[in-house]
Amino acid sequence: MPTPDDERFEIYLKQFHPLVPDPMPTEGRGQASRRSFVLRAWFAAVAAILIVAAIGLHIRSNRVAAPNTAIEAASPKVVPLQPLTMRSANALLATAPSFKAVVDGLAFRSESLTLPKGEQSALAVLGKEKIKL
Amino acid sequence: MHRHRRNTAEIEFLYRQHGSALLLFALAITGERGRAQDAIHQVFLKLIENGSLSQAVDKKAYLFACVRNAVLNEGKRDDRNTQLEPDSVWFIPPDRDYARERNLRRALGVLPDDQREAIVLHVWGELTFSQIGDLMGISSNTAASRYRYALAKLRDAMFAKENFCANS
């Protein structure tokens, strides 16, 4: 049977508190792994954004390039169908900002245009005419 | 995965709850702070890895038994009484009176290992004599009488020392 002295002594002993142990290694590891997980998530997110952006840019550049090639491919066909006639020259004069721009535009057109039979180039006609100033 | 996380959380909670008493118990067996701390970490890390704590009926007693086995299985302990580290503090004493803490530690160190274990398990571990008996492989009556005998010796040692210190 415990005596009153024993009980009092036990109470006295319990006033001494055992030391707190060092934290568990897993707690630090857990925090580190949580931190590394967050870092990894950030890197993954940034990488995903970069990849999406790169894919988007690639698609966009393809779309922009496609019409150019189409125009380039189509232009040799279009040009012979629209030879320079008086009507088209008048239309150009009506829409162009200046006369010089029209002349420049006409002067740099390809020379290798073949006109359908029965049609003449307006420039050729004007070139043959002798205009007195 | 979820179950494992819950198990880990429970083990970490038990570590916070009983870690101090377990450390003191390990100190009472090994006498060295480093070895005691290592033994506790080893036990808890194993528990997290194996997830075997859920099978234990009396978790607190099971933890003390695990710590005891870990320390004893280490194989560094010999038959003679443990040599305590003189500068290693075991307790936070009341009123920060470290002279009394040293006095208690010395008095505990004088006790035979099994008596010191019984004192630590009952006073600071708050285990019953039945639990102590199961843990040490003795009957609860033997555990109780061992405790009473150790308590009387401890008291005599401490107060004789304190009176001696007071008189000198």
Describe the protein in words.
The complex is a heterodimer of chains A (133) and B (168). With 133 residues, chain A is mostly helical. Chain A is 71% helix and 2% strand. Chain A has five helices and one strand. The termini of chain A are far apart. Chain B has seven helices and one strand; from the N terminus they run αααβαααα. Chain B has 168 residues and is mainly α. Chain B has two domains: 79 residues, Orthogonal Bundle (Rna Polymerase Sigma Factor, Chain: A); 74 residues, Arc Repressor Mutant, subunit A, CATH 1.10.10.10. The mean pLDDT of chain B is 87. Chain B starts with a helix and ends with a helix. Chain B is globular. At the A-B interface, α1, β1 and α2 of A face α1, α2, β1, α4 and α7 of B.
Q: TL;DR of this structure?
A:
The complex is a heterodimer of chains A (133) and B (168). Chain A is built from five helices and one strand.
How is the main sheet of chain A built? none
Q: State the shape of chain A.
A: rod-shaped
At the fold tier of CATH, the topology name of the largest domain in chain B is Rna Polymerase Sigma Factor, Chain: A
Question: Which protein chains make the most extensive interface, counting residues with beta carbons within 8 Å of the other chain's beta carbons?
Answer: A-B, 19 and 31 residues
